[in-house]
C-alpha cells in the first residue's frame, strides 16, 4: 500500500471511529463506544505509518539527488 493510501485510509478510519465513539456515548452503548475508540486508534496508527513512509521516501529521494550532484 502506498504512503498516500495509508494516510487517507487511516484518517477515514479515525473519523469513522470518532463517529462510532460519539454514537456510543449518545445512546449509552459502552461496547460501541469502545469499538469506536479502538477504530480511531487504529486509524491514527495507520495514518502515522503513512506519514513515516512518505517521509522516508522523501528522504531517500533527497539523498539520491545529493549523491548525484556530488558525482558531477
Question: How much strand content do the residues show?
Answer: under 5%
Q: Tell me about the biggest sheet? A: none
Number of helices: 2
Q: Please count the beta strands (DSSP E, at least 2 residues each).
A: 0
Poorly predicted runs are: none
The rounded distance between the terminal residues' Cα atoms is: 35 Å
Shape: rod-shaped
Number of domains: 1
Q: Averaging pLDDT over every residue, what do you get?
A: 93
What string, H for helix and E for strand, traces the elements in order? HH
Please give the radius of gyration in angstroms. Answer: 19 Å
Q: Helicity range of the residues? A: over 70%
The secondary-structure class comes to mainly alpha
Amino acid at each position: 500500500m502506498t504512503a498516500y493510501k495509508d494516510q487517507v485510509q487511516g484518517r477515514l478510519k479515525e473519523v469513522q471511529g470518532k463517529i462510532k465513539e460519539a454514537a456510543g456515548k449518545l445512546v449509552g452503548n459502552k461496547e460501541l463506544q469502545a469499538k469506536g475508540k479502538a477504530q480511531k486508534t487504529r486509524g491514527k496508527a495507520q495514518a502515522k505509518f503513512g506519514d513515516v513512509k512518505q517521509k522516508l521516501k522523501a528522504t531517500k529521494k533527497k539523498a539520491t539527488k545529493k549523491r548525484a550532484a556530488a558525482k558531477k
